[in-house]
Design goal:
heterodimer, A: alpha/beta, 60s Ribosomal Protein L30, Chain: A, four-stranded mixed sheet, B: alpha/beta, fumarase, five-stranded mixed β-barrel, 7 strands, globular
Chain lengths: 280, 188
């Protein structure tokens, strides 16, 4: 059985936290450039110029491109034939987050308890860690820190089957129109359809780890992604101060659901679409 | 875009009343960073009848929690945070003499009414342009609540800090006019 020491996991997670904070993924950078070419609002063009220049500075100087370096979401796919040694997996991931956020000069934005004390944990731990057991003997890690300007504008609607495609579109557009210019557009919109309330929300997060240039493999969902993107870009929200580039992409994930249900979850991400991926 | 208007702080009501929604500005001088936890602490201090740790007369507040500075830098990345979260505290804070607010996103009716009454301008900096904005910050000094870490109240010395007037002191909003202008959505 293949063995993997937790120290290796900690080191890699630390590096991935920094990488995600400093380097805007190329697909998103190119999406912003395409948006700049087609943006009709002069003030929107100015905003996009600043956002593009910002990504270039961050990359060249190893700096976080947004000061909200997020709550650290970590997706782990653990091969069932892999033996993790030397300690506890979750502790190793959290140690990596603490190391990455401290050494990388990233902002510590996590409070230990949400309502009464709200005391900062000082090292951005704990992360939000999702584990999945898969075939094989590898450990697949995606680190996707999530800023809360956009997270605060995300939402879930529990539709019924009769609501159908139009109901899904209306639910998504209600959330987008309510979010308006607040989540730092151009946005990337992750949508989870089906499952249970919690599963839909998780799918909407996972959808954001997919390239913005890659459409859902099922043609009906790919078409829905395109249609929703078009509608969102007709809202006038634009790049924060009004315009035509409100979103760069809509990524949908779907899953089996109950005969009585049609859950729809929408996670809005700002243009700082952070994620880093490695296989150990 | 029209030419950028240069603003030197302190920022008085007279200066504020001259600006119109849509004006692009470059701010130089001193601005004061404060966000959620500091706003809560300050309004609670006022409710207890205490004096605030900062004199807000003719100041600009910047809704900000920066990343830590790398060695040799005055500040880390420092873009605006969502202003709406400060709305509950803002009318109280504007009574303290603030004449400019810098952040991102929409404001409540109560805030806009208080802006009109007190002659306050609301500026937007570009959300997520944090590494770029850092280039205009020359100095960062914590003034109060150091225990709040990135949420401490701090003085920033800035040079040509880029911002846009989104709501002027007559309540005109660039968000509303410019969104409407580019809105072609039907049926939602």
């Amino acid at each position: 059985m293949r063995e993997l020491d937790v120290k290796t996991i900690t080191e890699n997670v630390a590096e991935m936290c920094k990488e995600a904070a400093y380097y805007l993924p190329e697909d998103v950078y190119n999406g912003l450039k395409r948006g700049r070419e087609t943006e009709k609002s002069p003030v929107g063009q100015v905003v996009l110029d600043q956002i593009i220049r910002n990504a270039e500075i961050a990359k060249a100087e190893d700096r976080p491109y947004c000061q909200d370096t997020g709550m650290t979401i970590v997706f782990l796919k653990i091969g069932q034939d892999l033996h993790i040694t030397g300690g506890n997996l979750e502790d190793a991931v959290n140690a990596g987050i603490a190391k990455g956020y401290t050494e990388g000069y990233l902002r510590k934005s996590v409070v230990a308890e949400p309502l009464f004390n709200r005391k900062n944990t000082q090292d951005n731990t704990p992360g939000v860690i999702y584990t999945e057991i898969v075939p094989g003997d590898k450990l697949d890690i995606t680190v996707a820190p999530k800023g809360f300007g956009s997270e605060n504008k995300s939402g879930v609607k529990m539709l019924v089957p009769a609501d159908g495609v139009e109901g899904v579109k209306k639910a998504v557009m209600d959330i987008i129109l309510h979010a308006s210019m607040n989540p730092c557009p151009p946005m990337v919109v992750g949508i989870g359809i089906g499952g249970t309330m919690d599963r839909a929300a998780l799918m909407s997060k996972k959808a954001l780890t997919r390239s913005i240039d890659q459409r859902n493999p099922m043609p009906e969902y790919a078409k829905l992604e395109e249609e929703l993107l078009e509608l969102i870009n007709q809202t006038g929200i634009g790049p924060q101060l009004g315009g035509t580039t409100s979103a760069l992409a809509v990524n949908i994930e779907w899953g089996p659901t109950h005969i009585a249900g049609l859950p729809v979850a929408v996670t809005i991400c700002c243009h700082a679409m952070r994620h880093a991926h490695r296989e150990l | 875009m029209a030419e950028q208007i240069k603003i030197q702080t302190p920022f008085t009501e007279e200066m504020s009343r001259k600006l119109k929604a849509g004006d692009a500005v470059l701010i130089s001088g001193e601005i004061i960073a404060a966000r959620d936890a500091a706003h809560k602490a300050m309004t609670e201090a006022l409710a207890r009848g205490e004096k605030l740790p900062v004199d807000w007369t003719n100041q600009m507040v910047y809704y900000l929690g920066p990343t830590p500075a790398k060695p040799g830098d005055p500040i880390g990345s420092c873009g605006p945070t969502t202003s709406g979260r400060m709305d509950a505290y803002t009318p109280t804070m504007l009574e303290q003499g603030i004449k400019g607010m810098i952040g991102k996103g929409s404001r409540s009716k109560e805030v806009i009414e208080s802006m009109k009454k007190n002659g306050v301008t609301y500026f937007a900096a570009v959300g997520g342009a944090a590494a770029l904005i850092a280039k205009s910050v020359k100095k960062y000094e914590v003034l109060a609540y150091p225990e709040l870490g990135p949420e401490a109240v701090a003085r920033l010395t800035v040079e040509d800090f880029p911002a846009i007037v989104v709501i002027d002191c007559e309540g005109n909003s660039l968000y509303e006019t410019n969104q409407e202008k580019y809105r072609t959505l039907k049926g939602y």
